[in-house]
Amino acid sequence: MIRRSPVALALVAVALTAAACGGSSKSSDSTSSGTEPAASGNGDAAGILSAIDTKAVTGPQKLKLDLTVDIKGTPSNAQLAVFTKQPIKLALDGVVDSTGKSADMNVNVTLGKDPVQAEIRTGGGKSWIQVDGKWYDLPADALSSTTGQSLPQGTSLSSVDAGKILAAIDDPAKLLQNATVSSDKVEGIDSDKVSGDVNIEGVAAAAANLSKTMGSSGGTAPTQAEIDKSVAQLKKVVQKAHVDLWVGKSDHKVHRVAFTVDAKMDAATKTSSGLDGLTLNLDVTTVDADAPDIKAPDSVGTPAEFQQALVGLLTKVMSGASAG
Q1: Could you tell me the pTM of the whole model?
Q2: Which of 55, 85, 91, 103 is 20 to 30 A removed from 112 (C-alpha atoms)?
Q3: Where are the domains of the chain?
Q4: Residue 118: strand pairing partners
């Protein structure tokens, strides 16, 4: 659990944002957050967090995600060392409709000077991916045949059950401490901006509940003793963990999350791995949107061609990382 701690913290932040349904107004075409200078808010942080509407998404959502991970140190593993040359960046931008089971998402990954770009479409029970300007059918086992890891039945961009995830988190107020409130906007939606430090114990409990709820074949949920041990380790490693949440004043839904974690490895981890620490920054925005207009590409490559393209893509990613 300690090795996955930044991911667990980020997952909780993304899960909170996954519940956003926007206000009564549709989002604009702008990809910016639309924030204005913050004003002092009159709301109570705990009250705002506890009143967050955690019902599952029922309509299409415009999603924008930016993730940056900066790993410091000199790893003993040569393959891992290429990822310390520069920050790793992931950007997602598009529309996901869990009810209509459709999605159109642009993906951008940067490990070196040249970003890798792709587009994924899902609709009508089919999925396609565009790599280097060419479209391919994306069968359910496409990734598992390459990585050796099987994906759960029905897994796709549009099949995540935000309601179950949020129910596992329980009371969002337990995730923050030293919280303050101000007023701001997210793409025109009046919001309470709640800012605070992450409560390690609360996040560990939420991550454990997520593990029980989401599950995995052959996996077991952590025991309370394992959770307590992980909390103690996290408190030694995590130097800073800060979250900003934008909650709609009228709909009480989370429309944006900005999340920062600074971690410094303990002596044992540094000795065994060569890692000094890492910084993780995550910024996610979701608002109401029109359903994506999904059309099948005019021409698609064969499964064999997709496998070749995927190998070429991975080679490009690793080469870019090595080159810095």
Answers
A1: 0.73
A2: 103
A3: 5-21+43-323
A4: 107, 131
